[in-house]
Specification:
heterodimer, A: about 260 residues, mainly alpha, B: about 260 residues, alpha/beta, Rossmann fold, four-stranded antiparallel sheet, 9 helices, about 25% strand, globular
Chain lengths: ~260, ~260
């Protein structure tokens, strides 16, 4: 009987091992992404699945966020007699921050958990091994298609969420101020610069990649039967949300430097 | 239901040859020097208690797990030295039937059966794929279930479709992991008959991992008893059954009770 020796302790070693496994997983993703065969049909299927899965929730949440944020901002601006700035504030807030963040968090919950649970279930029921013994690379077929699908689809969902959020906001402004919707949109977009749009696109691409890769990593490495599937889905959501918040801070800071220079 | 011994076993041609194979997981030694040969046209059942490494052994054979040391030749290829591409080419010649059937939940039966063909033989037309799918579905008598989802099938039907999916690539070797586990006696009998039919109809050599002595007796030409990480006895069912080894006797007694 061999006895296992640890470098630090069992838990610290396990933590570093997990970090190393995640690093290897991401590296494998980039290595295999550009090698044949390309499963285009599966990629399109996944894009469609992700879009359909998240669309109703994003529509509802985006719309409510637009209305609620407008309602909450109005009294503060009214204190300074600046309620006419409301459309501009909403434009900046929704396009630069709320749209990407709300979509990212919803997709982390809806899509990330779905990917984690689906791949986790495939892992514990030996479906991934079945692909491997059929001479099909399961990493390419399952992981690469899903990660690219989230990376490509979530930016579209972010723009959709921003659009629905602004719609909610404009309806609120129209209901309260009886101002024209066209004026609302003109004011909302007047303060948005090209760099703001790029920032929003970069955020959505990074969040999409994060959701796909975290969900796939947790699902693909699920263990311990059905309990492991639940754990993979749960960890996929928690880890993706945590990373999205960290990425939000980093990207905002980077774009502040870009604007400064 | 006894096995039809009409097939030809070529004792000159080894399709699987294992020499001094070792495998351990962390601090647990599972396989401790396995020596074994499977001949062309032969069915061998591997018996043993749970956790003795029976499934580990067939996963090593198909390259899902790597052994710690030892030699393993499958269809003349040294598995441990193959590149990914060579291993995939070898896997196309091996059929692996999983204990859980491992049908793809998101695909219907037709798509499950067509999947290995679509992925590996890109030049096949839709018509060729349809014909191949119908042929294997017919071989397992489930031609009428092609449009159903795996969740709509019974345990026995899932096993049959799992076997059909491996047959679609016309394998030379079949590896069955607990083919009758969790099935009622009637369905088990149907699976046993299917394993024998596969051997005769598709001219395969097979390893059958099982606890089920009826399955072992009815499907295999030889039995290999895996105890303490080694084959303690290899021979015909009667030879193994009549051995004086206490551990083997105990195993047979418990399974007959």
């Amino acid at each position: 009987m061999k006895t296992r020796k640890y470098i630090f302790s069992r838990r610290i070693d396990a933590y570093f091992q997990a970090v190393y496994e995640a690093y290897k997983f991401v590296l494998q993703f980039w290595k295999e992404s550009f090698r044949r065969p390309f499963h285009i049909r599966e990629l399109v299927n996944q894009c469609f699945e992700i879009g359909v899965r998240a669309l109703p929730l994003i529509t509802l949440t985006g719309f409510i966020v637009g209305i609620v944020f407008t309602k909450q901002s109005r009294p503060s601006l009214e204190n300074f007699g600046a309620q006419s700035w409301l459309p501009s504030l909403m434009g900046i807030a929704i396009i630069k921050a709320l749209g990407p963040l709300v979509t990212g968090l919803i997709c982390a919950g809806k899509v990330g958990s779905g990917i984690g649970a689906e791949l986790g279930s495939m892992k514990v029921t030996e479906q991934i091994e079945a692909m491997e013994v059929s001479a099909v690379n399961p990493f390419k077929f399952l992981v690469i298609t899903r990660v690219w699908a989230t990376t490509l689809t979530i930016p579209v969902l972010v723009f959709y969420c921003s659009f629905v959020g602004l719609l909610g906001s404009s309806l609120n402004v129209w209901a309260v101020d009886s101002s024209s919707t066209l004026t609302f949109y003109q004011n909302a977009f007047s303060t948005i610069t090209f760099v703001d749009l790029i920032e929003s696109i970069v955020k959505s691409i990074v969040y999409g990649f994060t959701i796909g890769i975290v969900g796939s990593f947790k699902g693909y490495n699920a263990t311990q039967g059905t309990r492991g599937v639940g754990k993979a889905a749960n960890q996929a959501v928690v880890s993706a949300m945590f990373l999205i918040f960290i990425e939000e801070i980093v990207i905002v800071q980077i774009f502040r430097w870009i604007r400064f220079f | 239901m006894d096995k039809l011994k009409q097939h030809f076993i070529n004792r000159e041609e080894e399709v699987i040859s294992i020499k001094d194979l070792y495998k351990s997981f962390e601090n647990l030694d599972v396989l401790k020097g396995i020596n074994f040969s499977l001949y062309k046209g032969e069915n061998v059942a591997i018996l043993g208690k749970s956790g003795t490494g029976k499934s580990v052994l067939i996963k090593i054979i198909v390259g899902l797990l790597k052994p710690d040391k030892g030699h393993l030749q499958v269809l003349g290829k040294e598995v441990n030295t193959l590149s990914k591409r060579e291993l995939d080419a070898l896997r196309l010649r091996i059929g692996f039937s999983f204990q859980s059937s491992a049908l793809y939940d998101g695909m219907n039966v037709y798509q499950n059966l067509a999947f290995p063909l679509r992925m590996n033989l890109k030049n096949l037309s839709k018509k060729d794929i349809n014909l191949a799918v119908e042929r294997v579905a017919d071989a397992v008598s489930l031609k009428d279930k092609l449009s159903q989802m795996p969740s709509d099938l019974s345990g026995g039907q899932r096993k049959r479709i799992g076997i059909a999916r491996t047959l679609i690539l016309k394998p030379e070797i079949m590896l069955y992991d607990e083919p009758t586990a969790g099935l009622d006696p009637i369905t088990s009998t149907e699976i046993i008959e299917l394993i024998n039919q596969v051997q005769h109809r598709f001219n395969t050599s097979s390893i059958i991992i099982t606890h089920d002595l009826t399955c072992a007796k009815c499907t295999s030409d030889r039995i290999a008893m895996l105890l303490d990480g080694k084959f303690s006895k290899v021979g015909t069912f009667d030879e193994v059954f009549e051995t004086n080894d206490n551990q083997i006797k105990e195993f047979f007694n418990y399974n007959f009770m």
